[in-house]
């Protein structure tokens, strides 16, 4: 089978598996990588950039070496790798569960669910804060959990899929600007920024094009992206969150409380504060963008030589 056809088919089959089965609740390979990376950190940690660079090189390099061997499995390997790294179905399910709990007025249950979506401190958030946090997480993780791995898989096959997931996982683990990880996590955060530069913008473009599906307009989504994305401290999260805010006609950003401290995020969009129904609309947008991303990625893989 032609390599491009095999890769495209593997991406489509793996995406279908994610839609049907979602992430395995136990023995997930990504969780296994996280455990191994945490153990490695015990050996490599130092409050210095060079230690973080070594940690990133060893952790991601090991995954790439494994992926290069696994890629010999052709279509089956690509299918399984795609299913392993995607998290779109689980993301949408968590978003809907959060909306259900907020609609039921069960704030405690909603707070318990938030850590599955993002790293913010749920104990200080009310219903509106939980809705905003979940919506912003849906926007960002649509890119991180689906669009980015699919695009990397399209251009680099199994190594692209697994390597991207390793980079993104390390950023989630140590890419914080707190006292412990400010220097050690620098390499992980910057590598993740580079890996997501193109995927975030593809996500933004898909959000602009698909805005009418959630009652928005491409013009509003594009305007929010162009006016507000650059205000965000992340070169990538700003793009996907601003375009989502514009598509939904809501306002995101503001004081954001993490476990390591608070950040004052810039305002994205010019609409009202998000409500529970907006969170449901964000989930629908996420699922539409995911479908668009797998179509684009499969087409891109077919162009490989």
How would you concisely characterize the structure shown here?
One of its GO terms (molecular function) is ABC-type vitamin B12 transporter activity. With 305 residues, the protein is mostly helical. It has 12 helices and 2 strands, in the order αααααααααααββα.
Which term fits the overall shape?
Answer: globular
Hey, roughly how much beta strand do the residues contain?
under 5%
Number of domains: 1
Low-pLDDT runs: none
Number of helices: 12
Helix/strand-derived class?
mainly alpha
What is the arithmetic mean of pLDDT? Answer: 92
The H-and-E topology, N to C, reads as HHHHHHHHHHHEEH
**What is the number of E strands?**
2
End-to-end C-alpha gap: 12 Å
**Major sheet details:** 2 strands, antiparallel
Strand order of the largest sheet: 1-2
- The Rg value, from CA coordinates, equals 19 Å
- Relative helix content: over 70%
From the structure above, extract its key features:
305 residues; mainly alpha; 2 strands
Question: What does this 3D model show about the protein?
Answer:
The chain is mainly alpha-helical. It has one domain. It contains twelve helices and two strands. The chain has helices at 3-21, 29-44, 49-70, 74-85, 88-103, 107-113, 127-174, 186-195, 197-210, 218-228, 237-248, 276-302, and strands at residues 252-258, 261-268. Strands 1-2 form a two-stranded antiparallel sheet. A hairpin with a 2-residue loop joins strand 1 (252-258) and strand 2. Helix 7 (127-174) packs parallel to helix 12. It is globular, with a radius of gyration of 19 Å. The protein starts with a helix and ends with a helix. The model has no long low-confidence stretch (mean pLDDT 92).
């Amino acid at each position: 089978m032609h390599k491009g056809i095999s890769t495209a088919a593997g991406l489509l089959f793996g995406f279908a598996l994610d839609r049907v089965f979602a992430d395995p609740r136990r023995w997930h390979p990504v969780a296994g990588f996280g455990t191994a990376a945490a153990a490695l950190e015990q050996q490599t940690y130092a409050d210095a950039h060079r230690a973080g660079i070594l940690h990133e090189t060893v952790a991601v390099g090991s995954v790439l070496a494994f992926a290069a061997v696994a890629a010999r499995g052709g279509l089956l390997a690509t299918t399984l790798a795609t299913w392993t790294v995607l998290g779109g179905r689980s993301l949408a399910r968590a978003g809907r569960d959060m909306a259900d709990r907020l609609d039921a007025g069960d704030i405690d249950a909603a707070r318990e669910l938030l850590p599955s979506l993002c790293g913010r401190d749920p104990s200080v958030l009310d219903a509106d804060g939980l809705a905003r946090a979940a919506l912003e997480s849906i926007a960002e993780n649509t890119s991180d959990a689906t669009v980015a791995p699919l695009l990397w898989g399209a251009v680099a096959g199994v190594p692209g899929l697994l390597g991207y997931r390793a980079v993104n996982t390390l950023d989630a683990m140590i890419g914080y600007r707190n006292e412990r990880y400010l220097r050690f996590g620098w390499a992980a955060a910057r590598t993740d920024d580079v890996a997501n530069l193109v995927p975030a913008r593809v996500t933004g473009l898909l959000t602009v094009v698909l805005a009418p599906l959630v009652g928005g307009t491409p013009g509003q989504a594009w305007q929010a992206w162009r006016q507000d994305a650059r205000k965000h401290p992340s070169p990538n999260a700003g793009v996907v969150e601003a375009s989502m805010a514009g598509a939904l006609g809501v306002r995101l950003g503001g004081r954001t409380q993490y476990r390591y401290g608070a950040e004052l995020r810039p305002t994205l969009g010019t609409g009202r504060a998000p409500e529970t129904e907006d969170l449901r609309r964000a989930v629908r947008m996420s699922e539409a963008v995911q479908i668009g991303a797998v179509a684009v990625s499969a087409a891109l893989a077919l162009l490989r030589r």
